[in-house]
Structure formats: structure tokens, C-alpha cells
Please model this.
Amino acid sequence: MFELTEAQQMVQQAARSYAQKSLAPVAAALDREARFPRAQLRELAELGLMGVNVPEELGGAQAGAVSYVLAMMEIAQGCASTAVTMAVNNMVAETLVRFGTPEQKRRYVPEITSGRFAAASYALSEPHSGSDAASLRTSARRDGDDWVLNGSKQWITSGDQAGVIIVWARTGVAGSKGISCFLVEGGARGLHVGKHEDKMGLRASSTVPLTFEDLRLPAAALLGAPGQGFHIAMAALDGGRVGIAAQAVGIGEAALAAAVRYARDRQAFGQPIANYQAIRFMIADCATELDAARLLVLRAAGLKEAGQPFTREASMAKVFASEKANKACDVGVQIHGGYGYLDEFPAERHYRDARVTTIYEGTSEVQRFVIAREVLKD
Ligand SMILES: Cc1cc2nc3c(=O)[nH]c(=O)nc-3n(C[C@H](O)[C@H](O)[C@H](O)COP(=O)(O)OP(=O)(O)OC[C@H]3O[C@@H](n4cnc5c(N)ncnc54)[C@H](O)[C@@H]3O)c2cc1C
Model:
């Protein structure tokens, strides 16, 4: 079951090799210095990982949604901060491919896939609205052929690094039907980038608030039709959630691998702690749960690749993988004992990095109401 094609194995292998040789050795320093991984992202672009599921004519690898999650699991094992930046770049590129005009695709997608843009951003959340995205307040009003954008966004991944930012704004009635979607270029007049958030984890990923002050956009900056914004946001998030689920699996697997290494080495009461059943059962549970999470991720990606509905499966993968990754990281710290609490070992970084996976791109509570809605609909 889930035999990988030769092409998928090649993507997985390339991502694994890069993650282990070039990311894992620098992940702790990137985290400690909260340093944006610019050089690493450029190298990922050279490997085709900034547009894994993007057509070749737009500079993508055209390797499909399954290859994308395989790559994401590997990159997240090496460096979770780099992985989330890659995840948002891929999500933005795919959203442009799906909803953009030929001109919008030509102008922005090759910049993302080639790494010429350091990053791309997805700006939906606002200071007062995260889960309840349909209540967003950023506004875009018409002025002749132009649009004028005012408002603010919160927690925008790579918002200070992005060549292009997808921004959601209200153009009509209250609620989800009055929202449209715009493409804002990095450095645009009227775009103000706030102070870097000082985060618990993913510290090498940049997270900033954005403010728009009479930011003027041409008609051609509208992505999709007026009022289609919420639909575009949710479509992007379905794919994005599978990516974050894959990121969570990667972080969890890295934590488990570190715990297994440590358990073999650490001696207590005259033998390696890996000999004790209490430790073995923790390892067995985490290995089983992470494998199950991996399968849920592959199923959701497989449905996406086949062009079938996958909203329910994406949320199942996200909630399960993120919660089991958090557990694996917690167990990882426990198995390391006191050393798990020190930054000398990677266990505490994995623990901090995993924490946000149950929050961003829809909290666990949001995933559960999506799943329940889909199940009750059947
Ligand atoms: C590191 C990081 C990076 C991020 N990157 C981005 C990004 O690039 N772009 C972007 O747009 N956003 C981004 N976000 C925002 C993220 O998606 C939101 O934080 C998330 O959606 C939750 O929204 P909130 O923080 O407003 O919490 P709230 O929506 O205020 O939720 C608070 C709590 O209430 C619960 N809750 C809310 N409503 C209900 C309900 N109806 N029933 C039960 N429980 C409920 C939630 O599950 C949560 O536990 C990022 C966040 C972080 C931390």
C-alpha cells in the first residue's frame, strides 16, 4: 500500500539528503539566532522544492501533491523553521496557479519557484480574527479602476521577506461573501511591516504584523472575482493543512529519532535506558502514532493529486499529525531527562517547534468542527 513511484522516491531522496546534510547541522544555530534561512531557501528552490506541485512551465517541479508532502516531511526533520517557510511559499504558488490570471501567474509564480523571491506570504489573520476569518476588517474600496487597501494583518509568516503577499480584504457585505483577495508586492507604498514576533519556536521563520495605509492597487491586483476571496482562502488552506500535517510528522519523527539515539546511549541502573519497558512503550506508541499520521497525510495528498474532495481528510491529517507530533516531542524531552530541558540537545527545540502546529492554518478545534461538519453531512 502507498508504493511510491520512482519520481516520488527521487523527490523524497533529494529532500532527505538536503535536510540531513545541509539543514540539520545548522537548525540549532538558525533557531538560536532567529536567522531567516535565506541561503537555504535558495538551495531548496534549486532542488525544485519551492513549487513541487506547480507546472514546469511556471518553473515548478510538477511532481504532484504526494511528492510535496514527502519532501515536506523530510525538510521538517532537518529544520522546522525552513519547512514552514517552504510550506507557505508552495501554498501561495499553488493558489496563484489555481486562481491567477495568465499575467498574474507569469509575473509571480516563477519568482517564487526560482527562489528569486526570498518568500511569499498568505495574509488572512488579523489582530482580532484568526479562526473567525470571515469577520476580517481590512477593507479595499474602489477608486476609479484602482483599489485602496486599509487595515492590518497579524502573524504573517515571511511578511517582511515576501516578494508577493496574498491579502484578504472586505469589499462588500459583512461575513464570508463580502471578502476579496489581492496581490500586494513586497515594498509596496503604503505597506508597513511591524516588529518581528518573538516566538516560542520556529524562531528562524519570520512572523510579522502588516499594516496597509491607503495602499493603492491596480484592478489587475485582484485575485479571482470580487467576493470569491473566502472561497480562495479555504481552498488554499485545504492544501496548506496537508502541508502542515506533513511538517508535524517531520518534527515528530526528528524528535523520536533523537529520543531513540539518546535511549540507546544513556545508562541508568547499569544499562541503557532503552532496555526499560517504560521507555520502550513510549517509543512504541510514538512510532505507531507517527506512522498513522504519515498515512493520513499521504491519503489526503493522494486525494488532492487525484482531483477528489479532500477537505475532511486534510483536517483529519492536520489534527491527528499535529497532536501526535506534540506528544512525540513531549516524550522526546521526557526520555532525555534533565538534558531534554537544555538547548544542548535538539529535544527542546523540537518541542517548541511542534507546539504551533495545532494552532496555525486552523486550530485543532477548528479542524474538529470541519471534520464533524463533513461527517454529519454524509
Ligand atoms: C507562528 C505563526 C504563524 C502564522 N502564520 C500565519 C500566516 O502566514 N498567515 C495568516 O493569515 N495567519 C497566520 N497565523 C495565524 C494563525 O492561523 C491563527 O493564530 C490561528 O488561526 C488561530 O487564530 P487566533 O490566534 O486568532 O485564535 P482564536 O481564533 O482567537 O482562538 C483562540 C482559541 O479559541 C478557540 N476557538 C475559536 N473559535 C472557536 C469555536 N467556534 N469553537 C471552539 N473553540 C474555538 C481556538 O481553537 C483557540 O483555542 C500564524 C500564527 C502563528 C502563531
